[in-house]
């Protein structure tokens, strides 16, 4: 039985995928398999995979797009390892990742998964030290001590400190919580970590930067934002925390997401749906809701320019 299954879901990213695979093959730990699950790529991904004859590499190809979480599930079901990690096709592992994380799980039988800090890299595959430091601080990793994580639900839901692509799991634990929910395109990683925490699973934090997370500008475009915000609302509605503080945070985050989606829909010209969401989200910011309602009066062709002016008044978001 292989020790570690490394799953890389992919879709039309052959250039980045080659880097992701190479980062696993360069590990200083060799008891692993790589499963590339392809969600119907239309680029040269099949040719790339055919050119890589390494016996540790397995290729699961879907002839048509079946959706992000469904594709991940197919890779998980093919996995044969005792331990399991999934990371995206545009990210990379550093050479020490598998050695360091498997050692933690080997030495601590009560730990269900181990997560590390990570670098931020740009579209040219170069590390961004300043953005990395800002990112680690923003998501609470600079204040997270090494070792077992206390109050895991707050860490993964409120502070969102863990990056699933920098996390190695015991596969049986993922089986116990049914791994990914089907038919989710976004927030599926957050949902998995919250479900693990709610189920009482134990996590360990290793504060070394052992993974590289790619951040590129198109992640912030409106075409990406609208489906993401829709799925985030769905994700937030899946929970009702017994802890009053966490439940208040969930409600606040839900109102904020409703407001943001309402603004984006108005920008895109979906005025009726956008205004309805502004009504739901105004508890987060009545002022922003009023601004959105005001912009909705203007013709759709003028709205992107108006929103562009508003966005220049605040800094861009940091990657997770």
How does this model look, in words?
This protein has 320 residues and is an alpha/beta fold. It has 2 domains: 4-215, Spore Coat Polysaccharide Biosynthesis Protein SpsA, Chain A (Alpha-Beta Complex); 219-311, no CATH class. It is built from 13 helices and 9 strands. It has helices at residues 14-25, 45-50, 68-78, 97-107, 129-138, 152-158, 171-176, 188-198, 222-236, 244-268, 271-281, 286-295, 303-311, and strands at residues 4-10, 32-38, 57-61, 83-86, 92-93, 113-121, 147-148, 167-170, 203-214. Strands 1, 2, 3, 4, 5, 6, 7, 8 and 9 form a 9-stranded mixed beta sheet that branches. Strand 1, helix 1 and strand 2 form a beta-alpha-beta unit. Helix 10 packs parallel to helix 12 (286-295). The chain is globular and about 60 Å long.
